[in-house]
Specification:
The structure holds 2 protein chains of 2 kinds.
Chain A (H helix, E strand, L loop, with lengths): L3 E2 L4 E5 L4 E7 L6 E7 L6 E7 L4 E4 L2 E6 L4 E6 L8 E8 L8 E2 L3 E6 L1
Parallel strand pairs in A: 2-11
Antiparallel strand pairs in A: 1-3, 3-8, 4-5, 4-9, 6-7, 7-8, 9-10, 9-11
Chain B lengths: L3 E3 L3 E4 L5 E7 L5 E8 L3 E8 L6 E2 L6 E7 L2 E6 L8 E8 L10 E2 L3 E5 L1
Parallel strand pairs in B: 2-11
Antiparallel strand pairs in B: 1-3, 3-8, 4-5, 4-9, 5-6, 7-8, 9-10, 9-11
Classes of the chains: A mainly beta, B mainly beta.
Chain lengths: 113, 115
Amino acid sequence: DQQVKQNSPSLSVQEGRISILNCDYTNSMFDYFLWYKKYPAEGPTFLISISSIKDKNEDGRFTVFLNKSAKHLSLHIVPSQPGDSAVYFCAASVTGTASKLTFGTGTRLQVTL
Amino acid sequence: DVKVTQSSRYLVKRTGEKVFLECVQDMDHENMFWYRQDPGLGLRLIYFSYDVKMKEKGDIPEGYSVSREKKERFSLILESASTNQTSMYLCASSLLGTGEENTIYFGEGSWLTVV
């Protein structure tokens, strides 16, 4: 049972435009959400996170939105740059579970010139 | 910066061999994890540890064991490697906490091919 779902395996966006990556979850106990970015042959790197007490968190070009009623979060990248081309993983956890994260299957973002 | 170091980046092993994947973190984190990443399946948790000599099964522990004798070191062991264990293995660590401390930091990964 996939508790964290990224239904779009890939996304192509032009440089300078907005990239929107989506993530849905089914476990209502999740209260902390993270996005990781992964280049080929490297480990994932932490990008941005959001607690369930917030509905938005911003860090430079990256904004994460959380809609708890819909059990949906999204990552917005504005403006998109070629260096943003990577696989993006959404992850979720329940506070107090020793940081045990449940990951989605990932979305490959390609930013074209 | 947090540094999680995986000793072997690329390994090729034969079916039936015993395989050790070593991981060291330098940030005094309590929690350590082993994940594997496979195309279309995302990252799946194999085992994790929240203290020395403590371990808990993740989502896919079958065929694996772990060892944590020191706080900074977490080893993944494949007792008898099989071809379906060909994958990218990722070690990670985090603080024992809540909220933002739940952020985990990954190593660069170990590519294991079992032939």
